[in-house]
Every structure is written in structure tokens, then in C-alpha cells.
């Protein structure tokens, strides 16, 4: 199991399909609070889809259907994230996601990281500046970009762009961070930095990591699950 006995995410009897394509078949899993839980498995098994169920990013996909229950402990309370009382905006602030390919917005480094704060209605300039700096430090990127904050974020290297995307997710202090193969497009040096970053984030949030790299999982994860034939099984 995980280092912390308290459960952060509890998923029960999850079924998911795109039209006639049944991707998940009765998935049941627990994610420990403050742990790094890795999900591995063959390509095309629905690992990325599973992540999107935890912050409801799948809901605008035509013909997608989901059954089951997901409870996440947020703000100290157990929440059914699919209950009508659950705010989708608040959920996605508390459960952030970083994708396989870096996706910086076409704006400056500073504005990229500040963007979630603007969306959340933050207007205090000093507080935004402080939060952006803190997130960039947390993402191990501040020293590399502190003199370049007004430059286009797309001018950064691939590894820097991915850390920028992590800073953008971290700036609103999420309780859960979903990482979808965050190093698959990076070289060994950039991957090592991201892995160190992932381990450091255990102190502040719960992480669910999808990875195809079993060596990486062994290096960073506290708990290892495998998604195979639409079901979750403990990794061998």
C-alpha cells in the first residue's frame, strides 16, 4: 500500500466507454494521501483516460460515457466529485493535470504561470507575482527563467516547458496532481530533473502518475498499479 493510511482518492466500479469502445471495465483503486501512485500498462489500455476521470476532463468528449463513483478527500472532506453539488471549476483547481506533451500557452513565461490565478479571479498584482515565483521555485525553474519572465514561453526547451506546465498547475496549490507520462518526450537529463521534482512534490500534494517506464516507476513511486484489459491489478 501507500505510506499514508488515509485514502485520498477512492474509485469504485468504474466503467468507461467511447461509443462501442469499452475502455475501463470495473476499475477499483485507492490512492493514498501524500503518496505517489503510479499506473502502468500496455498502450491503449485507458491509462490517460483514467486520469481524466479524476477531474472530469472527459465530459466534453462526444459519445463518452462513465459509470461508477469517485470520492476525493478535498479540504479535509470526502467529496463525491460527480455529485451535482461538486463545483467543476473548484475541482479542477484542486485536482491539477500535466499532460504528456508540454502545452505552454502562446504568451510569456510569467503569464503562463499566472493564468490559472487570473481565471480564479485573483487581481492583487503583488500576490500574483509572489505566487508565480513560488510555483516556479517549486517546479525547479525559477533560477533558469527569473530574468526571462516576459519572454514567450514557447522559447523554452522541452524540459523547461514541461516544468513550466507543472508550475502552472502548482500555482493554485492543488491537493492532487495528475501526471500523464510527463517525461515521455524528454531526454535523460530533463527526465532526471522532472523525477526529482515529482519526488519533492510528495510533501505538498498527492500524485497519480501514468508512466510507460517501469524503471522510472521504481525510482519515484510509492505504490504501483497496472491497468490491463480494462481492470486495475497490483503490479508484479
How many helices? The count is 8
CATH superfamily: P-loop containing nucleotide triphosphate hydrolases
End-to-end span in angstroms? 13 Å
Please give the number of β-strands. Answer: 10
Low-confidence stretches: none
Radius of gyration: 17 Å
Summarize the main sheet. Answer: 6 strands, mixed
CATH class: Alpha Beta
Q: Can you write the helix and strand succession as a string? A: EEEHEEHEHHHHEHEHEE
Tell me the CATH architecture.
3-Layer(aba) Sandwich
Please give the order of strands in the largest beta sheet.
Answer: 6-7-8-3-9-10
Strand content: 25-35%
CATH domain fold name: Rossmann fold
Could you report the average pLDDT, rounded to the nearest whole number? 94
Structure summarized in a few sentences:
With 236 residues, this protein is α/β, with parallel strands linked by helices. It has helices at residues 47-53, 88-94, 109-119, 125-138, 142-145, 158-170, 188-201, 214-220; strands at 7-18, 21-32, 36-40, 64-74, 77-80, 95-98, 176-180, 206-210, 223-228, 231-234. It is built from 8 helices and 10 strands.
Chain-wise SSE layout:
Blueprint: E1 7-18, E2 21-32, E3 36-40, H1 47-53, E4 64-74, E5 77-80, H2 88-94, E6 95-98, H3 109-119, H4 125-138, H5 142-145, H6 158-170, E7 176-180, H7 188-201, E8 206-210, H8 214-220, E9 223-228, E10 231-234
Helix pairs in contact: 3-4, 3-6, 4-6, 6-7
Amino acid at each position: 500500500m501507500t505510506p499514508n493510511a488515509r485514502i485520498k482518492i477512492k474509485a469504485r466500479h468504474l466503467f468507461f466507454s467511447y461509443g462501442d469502445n469499452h475502455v475501463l471495465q470495473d476499475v477499483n483503486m485507492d490512492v493514498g494521501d501524500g503518496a505517489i501512485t503510479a499506473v502502468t500498462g500496455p498502450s491503449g489500455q485507458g491509462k490517460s483516460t483514467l486520469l481524466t476521470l479524476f477531474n472530469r476532463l472527459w465530459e466534453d468528449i462526444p459519445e463518452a460515457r462513465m459509470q461508477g463513483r469517485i470520492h476525493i478527500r478535498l479540504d479535509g472532506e470526502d467529496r463525491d466529485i460527480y455529485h451535482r453539488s461538486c463545483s467543476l471549476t473548484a475541482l479542477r483547481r484542486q485536482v491539477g493535470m500535466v499532460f504528456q506533451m508540454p502545452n505552454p500557452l502562446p504568451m510569456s513565461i510569467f503569464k503562463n504561470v499566472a493564468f490559472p490565478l487570473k481565471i480564479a479571479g485573483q487581481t492583487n498584482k503583488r500576490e500574483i507575482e509572489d505566487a508565480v515565483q513560488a510555483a516556479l521555485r517549486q517546479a525547479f525553474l525559477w533560477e533558469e527563467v527569473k530574468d526571462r519572465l516576459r519572454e514567450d514561453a514557447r522559447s523554452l526547451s522541452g524540459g523547461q516547458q514541461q516544468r513550466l506546465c507543472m508550475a502552472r498547475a502548482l500555482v493554485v496549490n492543488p491537493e492532487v496532481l495528475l501526471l500523464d507520462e510527463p517525461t515521455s518526450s524528454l531526454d535523460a537529463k530533463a527526465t532526471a530533473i522532472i523525477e526529482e521534482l515529482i519526488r519533492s512534490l510528495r510533501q505538498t500534494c498527492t500524485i497519480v502518475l501514468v508512466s510507460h517506464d517501469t524503471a522510472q516507476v521504481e525510482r519515484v513511486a510509492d505504490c504501483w498499479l497496472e491497468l490491463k484489459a480494462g481492470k486495475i491489478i497490483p503490479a508484479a
